[in-house]
Amino acid sequence: MKKKVSTAAVLLIGLLAASAQVASHAPTLSANRQPTPASTSPADQATGRIVARVNGIGLTDRQLLREMFVIFPYARQHNGFPKSEEAEIRKGALDMIIFEELVYQHARRSKITVPQATLDKAASDLRNGFPSPEKYQEFLQTECKGSRELLLKKIERSILIEQVLKAEVKDKATVSSAQTKAYYDQNQASFEYPETFKIQTISIIPPTNASGETLAKTRVRAEEVLRQAKATKTFDDFGLLAEKLSEDDYRVSMGERKPTGRDQLPPPVLQAALGLQPGEVSNLIQLDQAYTIIRLVSHTEAGKKAFAEVKDSLRTDLQKKKVDQLRADLDKRLRKTAKVELLEGPGIG
Length: 349
Hints:
By secondary structure, the protein is α+β, with helices and mostly antiparallel strands. It has two domains: about 5-175 and about 315-340, Triger factor/SurA peptide-binding fold, CATH 1.10.4030; about 195-300, Chitinase A, domain 3, CATH 3.10.50.40. The protein is about 50% helix and about 10% strand. It contains twelve helices and nine strands. The strands form three sheets. The chain has a four-stranded antiparallel beta sheet with strand order 5-4-7-6. Strands 2-1-9 form a three-stranded antiparallel beta sheet. A hairpin with a 2-residue loop joins strand 6 (about 285) and strand 7 (about 290-300). The longest helix is centred in the C-terminal third of the chain and has 30 residues, at about 305-335. The chain starts with 6 loop residues before the first helix and ends in a 7-residue tail after the last strand.
């Protein structure tokens, strides 16, 4: 039977991966997609430099880097953080390590304690969570200078933070079924949806400033494409034909368009769509000098989602919002009496 690993142990196992060297790896890219410019690997640049102080306690760039990896784990694949997002990732990580230190210090002031048996079990869970004794020893040496006592202090810190957040945030963020229903009843407009049409298209488009003869040939070509489109039986059949013959931008997505409101469709297309059943293909629709063929995928009438449809996801959303608000309130309350110093210096990466 698998042993259950404590939250604190899981958090500390994450430290090993976060502090490891970022692998240099070039991801496979399609011909039409370019990689986001990324910074050079930040792993070698975390030296233990103090980046912030909370009531005189220094927080290091190693802690900051670990949290940046939590926010953007893909840094390991891209050999660093995207330049366009790095500042935001760094700010979010810095805010988080400051918040956790504030919570930890609050736990200490409140004289919250962790039983020795709990610490020992968490340390055992942590050790058993590593793939090999060698990996565990590597972690112990890297993160705790080989000291089990220091390891227990790190575990204790994680558990204390977890306990405070459970009491101050998680336990207070519950949303009952009655509260969920009350929110639904008071915000019914949020659950209404408009009439939409989902269609696939094939478009035949003549050259700009085409002559009468060219326009006539375009019509003939469109009629031949229509004959083939009418012979299709499925979404894929029509889509493959669109990929092969259509001249609009949607050919790359099998002619499929996102659900579109009634007022967003050109009148001739709307009129054609209203005359189709799902799976049916229209006749030629002329739009200026171009021709379009549509296949109706679905037609959804305007309506409102029933409470039964949304209650689970709505309750989850409401709880998440409540968690975010409670965390923000706790952060604000702890900062009010704390001295937080941000130290200027080069960013990681």
